[in-house]
Structure formats: structure tokens, C-alpha cells
Amino acid sequence: MGILDKFNDVSRGVNDKAKNISEANNLKRKILYEEERIVEIFTDIGKKYYKNPDEDPSVFRVLCEDIDTRRRRIKKMRFELNQIRGYKICPKCDAAVNDKFQFCGACGARLPDPEDEDFTSLEANDYYTVNSDSFFNADSQKTY
User: Fold this and answer.
1) Which of 37, 54, 92, 132 lies 20 to 30 A from 30 at CA?
2) CA 124 to chain centre
3) Among 67, 68, 59, 75, which residue's Cα sits nearest to residue 27?
4) What is the pTM of this model?
5) What distance in Å separates the CA atoms of residue 142 and residue 144, rounded to the nearest whole number?
6) Could you tell me where the DSSP H helices lie in the chain?
7) How many CB atoms lie within 10 A of CB 8?
8) Spatial distance between the Cα atoms of 110 and 129, rounded to a whole number of angstroms
9) pLDDT in tens, 87-101
10) Could you tell me which residues come within 8 angstroms of residue 82 by beta carbon, excluding any fewer than 6 positions away?
């Protein structure tokens, strides 16, 4: 029976890895969808403002709240994706740290925990779009 037990252990390991890969790919797809939708909403804001600069601010506020909601979803999904991979990203120095630790080994900062009240809080430039970082850098100091 020893060989069958080993075979079962190996097959369970393969199943777990396949499940993790599937979950990771699913999260990546969802993140990409949310990022694309954020770009579309920014475009809608620009079009609305271009057509009518005197538009009621509540129209823009609703769209901005939708962006923030999507950014929070992305933040949580990225955290889940990193958990599947077995690490957390330090919010201060961007170091990858084993997910079992609560503090960063590089800078000593407390690592994010989805149970924290402020986990879904957003920083000023926290747009979570990999392909459009420079486009969405709202606090850019560039002068044209």
C-alpha cells in the first residue's frame, strides 16, 4: 500500500497546483477587466467634460466613486493573487515577503492584512493599472 499512498499524495499535489493556477488565471482576468473598465470610465469623464464643462459635479462624482470601487476590488484581488503565490508585497518598499510574516524583512513596515479596517483604503496615486502608470499619475509634476 505504500506506493499507492505516495501516488495519492503526488496526485493531490498536482491537483492543488492546477487549482492554484486556475484561480490565479481567473484573478488575473478579473483584474484586467477592472483595469480596462477604469480606463473606459476615465474616457467617459473626459468626454462628458469636453462636451459640457459646466456639467453637474454629481455626474462626475458618481463616475469617480465607481473608479474607486473598482480600484479597491483590484487591490483585494492582487492581494489574493499574491497569497496564492505565497507572498505579500510591502506597501513601503515593494519587497516580496513570505505571506506568513506580518512585517517586512527589508524595511520593517507592517504588511497588509485584508482583515484590517484600512485594507481597502486608497493612496493618492494608487490606480493599480500596470500598463498605464504614467497616464494615471494624478500628481505628476510635469510641466508642458
Assistant:
1) 92
2) 15
3) 75
4) 0.70
5) 7
6) 2-51, 57-85
7) 10
8) 24
9) 888 888 888 999 888
10) 88, 89, 96, 99
